[in-house]
Amino acid sequence: MPSSVNWLTFTLHVISRCFEIMPRRSKRIKMRYLEYAGSTTLESERIIKFRFTNALWYKVGSLKTLATRIPVSGTEGSEITITVHGFFRKSIYSVELMHDYVQVLRVA
Question: Which class is 2-107 in CATH?
Answer without folding.
Answer: mainly beta
